[in-house]
Amino acid sequence: MAKTFCIANQKGGVGKTTTSVNLAAGLAALDQRVLLVDLDPQGNATMGSGIDKAALGQTVYQVLIGDADIPAARVRSETGGYDVLPANRDLAGAEVELVNLDSRETRLKTQLATVQRDYDFVLIDCPPSLSLLTLNGLCAADGVVVPMQCEYFALEGLSDLVNSIKAVHRNLNPQLKIIGLLRVMFDPRMTLQQNVSEQLVEHFGDKVFSTIIPRNVRLAEAPSYGLPGVCFDRSSKGAQAYIAFGAELVERVKTL
Ligand code: ADP
Ligand code: MG
What we know:
alpha/beta, Rossmann fold, 8-stranded mixed beta sheet, 8 strands, binds adenosine-5'-diphosphate, binds magnesium ion, AAA_dom, ParA family protein, P-loop_NTPase
């Protein structure tokens, strides 16, 4: 059975998509079978996996609406070594359409149940909001991986996210938990980041992953080549950190 994790944070630009794509590639490099679900209408995880979002037939949109199943819509990221349930602008309309459908929060969960045996990990790249799309992700997941930058307002933003996750846990998905907080875009030369990082560990203890993802320009360059950073320049510090994170997650999953 696959372990399903949402990569979520209500803030935009915090590294959710970079983490989703590189964790998928990092886990694939460790011989794990991975499905990456792109739940953001921007389709950045799709493009970053080397898939042309303009040339897609069926996408996660059709899967949510009930016009396609996952085996029909998934595509292979040849470079990444994992499958992608892709997204494009069509998904922006799903929000409105889902409101009128039955079981609107659990449609992704129902579809994912049919491909559990095909994967070791299902990773869901969420949009930056607590929309119906994100709710579909949270309802389908065993847990949440929260990428965050060690900045001044980081802890404040985190309490909003933790409250949202608690609400979903109470009302919709009793198995949902925070798997861990991942420090990303980390610059060890900045005292503020060091301080926030220490505060995080004080507050959240071993919920903070021990792997730290550094700020690394190779990770930022990779999407313009349609490649996960892990495949674009595997020896870079960023790529090595995401492969290490994949290994840490494989270990953590054993204790869940
Ligand atoms: P989100 O999905 O949360 O909106 P992204 O993953 O798209 O965030 O990241 C936002 C921006 O930061 C992108 O331009 C991305 O290339 C860049 N970025 C993300 N992680 C890193 C990193 N570790 N080092 C350098 N740039 C990064
Ligand atoms: Mg994103």
